[in-house]
Specification:
Distance between the termini: 40 Å
Number of domains: 1
Structural class: alpha+beta
Number of strands: 7
CATH superfamily: START domain
Strand content: over 45%
CATH class: Alpha Beta
Order of helices and strands: EHHEEEEEEHH
Radius of gyration: 15 Å
Helix content: 25-40%
Largest sheet: 7 strands, antiparallel
CATH topology: Alpha-D-Glucose-1,6-Bisphosphate, Chain A, domain 4
Strand order of the largest sheet: 1-7-6-5-4-3-2
Shape: globular
Length: 150
C-alpha cells in the first residue's frame, strides 16, 4: 500500500530539519510512540501503541535511517511486530522538505506492507490511522516550533 500526502509548517526548513533529527522531540510528537532509543548511529528502536479499527495494537519496532540529504530528504526503513496479534508491519518512509514562503512543505510517502491479523482488517483502516497520526504529528510539530519562538 502506498500512502502519499503533505502538510505545511510555518517554520523555516532548517528548524524543521533540526527538529526531525532530535529523536526525543520528534518521537514525543508521534502519537503512541514510547521508549524510543538510539541503538546505533542510524538505528532506533521503540514501541508504538495504537488502535487499528477496533483492535488495540502494541508494536515493538526498529527504524533505520537509510538516506539523509540535509536539509531536504530523509528515508527510513521500518519494521514493527505485534506478537499478540501475530502481525508484522514493514514500510519505507520517505520525506521531502521544501521551502514555501516563510514555511516548509513536508511531503511524505509510506510504502507499507502488512502481514498477519492486521492485514485481515484491511488497508483502509491503516490508511485512516496513518492520516490521523500524521495530522496529530503536524499539529505537535507546529506547536513545538511555535513555542520555541515565544
Amino acid at each position: 500500500m502506498l500512502i502519499k500526502d503533505n502538510f505545511v509548517v510555518d517554520a523555516p526548513i532548517e528548524r524543521i530539519w533540526a527538529f526531525i533529527l532530535d529523536i526525543p522531540r520528534v518521537s514525543a510528537c508521534m502519537p503512541g510512540a514510547q521508549d524510543v532509543r538510539q541503538v546505533e548511529e542510524n538505528l532506533y528502536t521503540g514501541k508504538l501503541n495504537t488502535r487499528v479499527g477496533a483492535i488495540q495494537a502494541a508494536f515493538d519496532g526498529r527504524v533505520e535511517v537509510v538516506e539523509r540529504i540535509e536539509p531536504e530528504r530523509l528515508v527510513a526503513a521500518i519494521r514493527a511486530e505485534d506478537r499478540r496479534l501475530a502481525s508484522v508491519v514493514t514500510a519505507t518512509f520517505t520525506s521531502q522538505l521544501e521551502p514555501i514562503g516563510a514555511g516548509t512543505r513536508i511531503a511524505y510517502e509510506i510504502d507499507l506492507a502488512l502481514r498477519g491479523r492486521l492485514a485481515q482488517i484491511g488497508y483502509s483502516s491503516m490508511q485512516q490511522l496513518i492520516r490521523k497520526m500524521t495530522a496529530e504529528f503536524a499539529d505537535c510539530l507546529q506547536q513545538s516550533l511555535s513555542a520555541e519562538i515565544n
